[in-house]
Amino acid sequence: MHFDRALTIGSSVRMISPDSKNCAETPEALITRIAGTRDRAAYATLFTRFAPRIKAFVMGQGMTAQEAEDLAQEALLNVWRKAHMFDASKASAVTWIYSIARNLRIDAARKAKRVRELPEDLWQGDGDKAADEQIVDTQSAQIIKKMLDALPPEQKDILRLSFYEDLSQSDIAKTLSIPLGTVKSRLRLAMTRLRTAMDGKSTGVKS
Amino acid sequence: MSAIHHPGEDLLWDYFRGALAPGLRLSVSTHLDLCPQCRDDLRVFTAIGGALLETTEGVAMSDNALDLALARIERPVDLPEVSDAPAPARRPAFLEGFELPPSLQSAEIRGRYFVAPGVWMAPIALPGEPRAAKTYLMCVKAGMEMPEHTHRGREITVMLQGQYRDHKGLYQRGDFTQCDEADDRHMPVMMGDVDCLCLVAQEAAIIPKTWLGWLLKPIARI
């Protein structure tokens, strides 16, 4: 069995250059094949490409290797089961997969918290936004990806700490030893730039 | 008509990463139901996450991971898929005529009680909410005054119907506002001839930890 470039020592998440990826077939095409013909080979390719990344991602956010491995398995199983709901003409596959993994991680965290605090039978879902309500089209995903590279390093750092380490803004301020206001304004600048690039509208007052 | 007062990026971020307490979470998701602009912000978050996932160097899965994955997709789905549609909530009669966003249609809204003439509150039961936190719907009849109140800790209001004005401007359906103890200038004035309905989420008040604190509690109105 082969996993692409799965050699990471320690839990730090590193970036790889885009040209080192093996993108023979787009993830959109793979998911479409899964939906169409329950294509196991397409699933194996998708699994090999994304499970190690999901594992790395949620380990960076504080999950143990075993929890992260289970979550990656669960996320890809969800991709298999929900493939028919994926519309390649509307959505970017990688953001869709990311949303599935993100929702699983949030659910796992909440469930763990509730099991500690409440008897299990009191636990119930609370009707949060489903993953597919945050559909990002392929073009927007490409724009954001390109814009991310072009952001000033100090804004990029805020986003990296936010996403890779799952930190709140006050924790980021502590980590970087900078005032909270600076973190807020950097994130705001980054978001304004990305939002404007994505759809070019931004008005209103932030409270 | 779309909202002009929005949650800050810090709150949206905490919502996105699932770190908000239930009451705050419900307030943000209610605002999101009514605000395309903030939904766009979440879409940007999702796109950033996707882009970062794509460029993340993976951590090796265990040796049998792919075999396990391929075996799992052959198993029949034993548990019924959890329905995406929230269970239909019993909707109290006093809410007839109000247009509630989806986030509140599945909420468990309890009986209302009047706190002043023309002003009622209806608590919302949220699983996992800290005991001292309060989340409720509040309705102020058109032409009535807002009751005098103080803020203990962070308090969030999302307008659902009607309008009011304060020192920060005019608030209408979808508008989101956050107050804390420092906001002693908060003197909302109801506008127009439509009843005001809003969702209010109060964070848990700080509970004194010392005997002296407990003795002073009634005086300090904590």
TrEMBL record, chain A:
Q: Could you confirm whether the keyword Nuclease appears in this record?
A: no
- UniProt key word Coiled coil: no
UniProt keyword annotations, A-Z: DNA-binding, Sigma factor, Transcription, Transcription regulation
Q: What is the lineage of its organism?
A: Bacteria, Pseudomonadati, Pseudomonadota, Alphaproteobacteria, Caulobacterales
Identify one Pfam family in the record: Sigma70_r2
User: Mind telling me what this protein is named?
Assistant: RNA polymerase sigma factor
GO terms, biological process: DNA-templated transcription initiation
Highest taxon of the source? Answer: Bacteria
Gene3D superfamilies given for it? 1.10.1740.10, Winged helix-like DNA-binding domain superfamily/Winged helix DNA-binding domain
**What InterPro entries does the database record attribute to this sequence?**
RNA_pol_sigma-70-like, RNA_pol_sigma-70_dom, RNA_pol_sigma70_ECF_CS, RNA_pol_sigma70_r2, RNA_pol_sigma70_r4, RNA_pol_sigma_r2, RNA_pol_sigma_r3/r4-like, WH-like_DNA-bd_sf
Q: PROSITE patterns annotated for this entry?
A: SIGMA70_ECF
**Biological source species:** Asticcacaulis taihuensis
Transmembrane domains' residue ranges: none
What does the sequence similarity comment in the record state about its family?
Belongs to the sigma-70 factor family. ECF subfamily.
TrEMBL record, chain B:
Residue ranges occupied by any ChrR-like cupin domain in the UniProt entry: 116-203
Matching entries from CDD domains are given as: cupin_ChrR
The record's listing under Gene3D superfamilies reads:
Anti-sigma factor, zinc-finger domain, Jelly Rolls
Q: Which InterPro entries match?
A: Anti-sigma_ChrR, Anti_sigma_zinc_sf, ChrR-like_cupin_dom, RmlC-like_jellyroll, RmlC_Cupin_sf, Znf_put
- Putative zinc-finger domain: from which residue to which, for each copy? 9-39
Name listed for the protein in its UniProt record: Anti-ECFsigma factor, ChrR
